[in-house]
Write a structure and sequence with these properties.
Layout: E1 2-6, H1 10-20, E2 26-30, H2 34-41, E3 46-48, E4 59-62, H3 66-76, E5 85-88, E6 104-105, E7 108-110, E8 131-134, H4 143-151, E9 155-158, H5 161-186, H6 190-195, H7 198-203, H8 211-220, H9 222-237, H10 243-257, E10 265-267, E11 270-282, E12 288-302
Helix pairs in contact: 5-9
Length: 307
Amino acid sequence: MKIGIVGLGLIGGSIFKALLRSGKHSFFLVTKNVQTAEKTKKQGAAAGSEYKILKDCEIVFVCSPMKNTSETLDKLEEVVKKDCIVCDTASTKSFVCKKSRPYKFIPTHPMAGTENSGYDFSLPELFEGAKWVITPFEYKKTEKVEELIKEMGAKPIITTYEKHDEAVALISHFPMLLSQILFKTAEDNELALHLASSGFRDTTRLAMTNTELAEDMMNFNGENIEKALKKFTSETENFRSDYLKKIEVIAEKRRKMYSKASLIDFVKGGLRIPFSVIIPEISSLGVTSKLGLIIFTFSAQIQSPFI
C-alpha cells in the first residue's frame, strides 16, 4: 500500500517505523526537518517538504501539531485524489469534523504516547496494545484503516467525535491539568520535593507532557475539560463523608480496571507484555544528580502454546 505521513514527530515517526516492519508498504513522507528526511530515505522512503509527494498515496496520516491540523487537511485537498483515505491523529476530534472534504476523511486518535517529542523518540512498538479511536465523519468505510491499526499492534475503537472528546477530557486532558497543578502546589516546599518518591513521581508524570500539545488540548477541548473540572469540584465537596466506604469501592474498581486483558494482550503468534524500565540519572561522580527518569517501553514476545 502507498502510505503517506505528514509530520514525523513522535506519532508520525512511530507510524512509519511500525508499518515499515512488514515490508508490504511504500512510504511518502512530508517533513520540514532535513535530517529526519535523510534518516527515512535510508530506510527506503521518499521524503521531503513538498506535499506533491503524496499525490498517488492510497492513505495519508496527518500527524501535524493539533493547531496546524486543519491547515494540513486543507492543503491535502489540492494534492491527493478523491479516493485517497486521509486520517488525522489529533487528540480532539470535534474541530476536524466541521468541514466536508473532497477525499475520504476518517478522523482518528491513537491513545499512545510519551512525554517526549520528535522523530528520534518515535518507536515502532509505541502502539502495541494501545487503543486507537476512529470517529467516522462523512465517509464510513473504515476497514482499511482498521487493518493498518491492527498491523501496528493497536485495537480500533469506533465512536462519535462528541463522545470521544468528552471521554479523553476525563481520562487524559483533565488528568494532565491536575498533574500540572499538583506539581505547582508543591514546588515551593523544598522539604516536600526532597521527600517526594514514587507516588508523587507517578501522579505528576503528565506534567511533563509536551507543552505545545498541552496547550492545544486546553484550547481545542476546553469546554469538556471545564465540565470535568466542575464534576471534580462537585465530588470533592462531600468526599470526606463515608470516606472509608467510598475509597474501598474506588480502590476495588481501580484494581479491576487494570487486572484484565488490558495489561496482557493476547495476540496472534504470542503473548505481548508491555513493560517499562526506570533508570535514575547518575552524575560522573557516581552520585545521583537528580531524579531524572528515562522510560523505555518494550514489548516482549513470549510464545504461547495455546494461540
